[in-house]
Amino acid sequence: MIQKTNNRNPLKHPDQRVGVFIDVQNMYYSARNVHGKKVNFGNIVKEAVAGRKLIRAIAYVIRTESKEELPFFEALYNLGIETREKDLQVFTTGTKKADWDVGLAVDAIRLAPTLDAVVIVSGDGDYLPLVEYLQKSSGKQVEVVAFSETTSSRLLEEADDFLDLSGQKEKFLIGEKKEDRRTK
C-alpha cells in the first residue's frame, strides 16, 4: 500500500478482523477503460487482507438476462468471495442502470461491529459518507483499494490507507490490452 497525503499509517496485525467489500462494476470499468484489461479479484482480496483475519469478502455483482456472467460468479465463489446479486435495470427509454452503492454501504455498516478494518474495493467518491461514518461513529479503520486514475481525491484523503492497483498491474490485472491484440 502507498502512503498518502493524510499521513496516516494504520496498524495492521494478524489478529485484526477484516471485511472486504468489492464494487465489481466500478472495478470492471476502471480496469477496462484505463488499462484495457480485467481485474484479478483473488489477488486483490489477498493483498487487501494483508495476512489479517478475513471475516467476509463480498462482491456486489449484476445479473443480466443472458446469464453470461454466471461463470464469473462461480469463479468468485471458488476464490472464497461471496456474491450479492442484483438484476440489471432496463428502463423503457433503453437506459440501463446497475449499481450497488447503497447495498455495499448497508452491509459494511451492518458487519462493522464484527470487524476492525473495512476495505472498500472501489474508487467511487459516493462512498465518502460511508468512510466518514465508519471512522467517526464506529471507530473502524477504513482502507480503499482501487486504481489511482479513477479514484476520488476526497476518498483518498479520508481513507486510512490506499492500495493503488495501477502500481502493480501484473498482479492485479489479467488479459491483454486491446491494442496489443490488433498488432499481433
Unreliable segments (pLDDT under 50, ≥5 consecutive)? 1-5, 180-184
Number of strands: 10
Helix content: 25-40%
CATH architecture: 3-Layer(aba) Sandwich
Write structural notes for this entry.
This protein is α/β, with parallel strands linked by helices and 184 residues long. The chain has one domain: 5'-nuclease (Rossmann fold, 3-Layer(aba) Sandwich), CATH 3.40.50. It is 36% helix and 26% strand. The protein contains eight helices and ten strands. The protein starts with 16 loop residues before the first strand and ends with a helix.
Any descriptors?
single chain; 184 residues; alpha/beta; Rossmann fold; six-stranded parallel beta sheet; two-stranded antiparallel ribbon; globular
What's the SSE blueprint?
Layout: E1 17-23, H1 24-35, E2 38-39, H2 41-49, E3 53-63, H3 70-78, E4 82-87, E5 89-90, E6 96-97, H4 101-111, E7 117-121, H5 128-136, E8 141-146, H6 153-158, E9 161-164, H7 169-172, E10 173-174, H8 178-183
Parallel strand pairs: 1-3, 1-7, 3-4, 7-8, 8-9
Antiparallel strand pairs: 2-10, 5-6
Gist of the model:
By secondary structure, the protein is an alpha/beta fold.
